[in-house]
Design a protein that fits this description.
Elements (H helix, E strand, L loop, with lengths): L3 H9 L4 H10 L5 H12 L6 H28 L9 H29 L10 H12 L5 H10 L3
Length: 155
């Protein structure tokens, strides 16, 4: 059985997925690891109940607020040259921050996987999991972007 982390890495490497995930994150304020958890769950026959989805959202919010969003902000700030900062040193720090951000996302995915119910059903279309989680995460469900993501994700 494929772990959530392995599936997420493979999914993120699929053409069009990174761009769609960034749109969902930056424009629609969705949590990408949480969405990937939802799609993986649907694709692997897991059907979380409302309480599990709520717990997953709480876990994602905690990781996002404490580590992921602040690290992302620092990484993005270091992306462009800055006055009085040596470019090589700035880029070296940015690379380390990016690695720590990815590590935090991996810990979030591990925590989400531990919340996952066992496999009880046949695989479902990823859009079902994506919409269920997006509705709990935010009051606006970006259905069109979620559908684009669902179309691009591996089975």
């Amino acid at each position: 059985m494929t772990t959530l982390w392995d599936w997420a890495v493979r999914a993120y490497g699929t053409e069009g997925v990174p761009e769609t995930c960034l749109t969902l994150q930056d424009i629609h304020e969705q949590n990408v690891p949480l969405l990937l958890w939802a799609a993986w769950g649907a694709a692997s026959g897991r059907t979380p109940d409302d309480e599990t989805i709520e717990a997953a959202c709480d876990t994602a919010r905690a990781w996002d607020e404490a580590a992921i969003a602040p690290l992302r902000a620092v990484r993005r700030r270091l992306k462009s040259p800055l006055p009085d900062l040596d470019d090589a040193a700035r880029e070296a720090v940015r690379t380390r921050v990016k690695a720590i951000e990815l590590e935090a996302e991996r810990h979030l995915l591990t925590a989400l996987e531990s919340l996952s119910p066992p496999v009880f059903a046949d695989p479902r279309p990823p859009i079902e999991g994506l919409v269920a989680v997006a509705r709990q995460w935010s009051r606006i469900t970006p259905r069109q972007s979620l559908e684009r993501l669902a179309e691009r994700l591996p089975a």
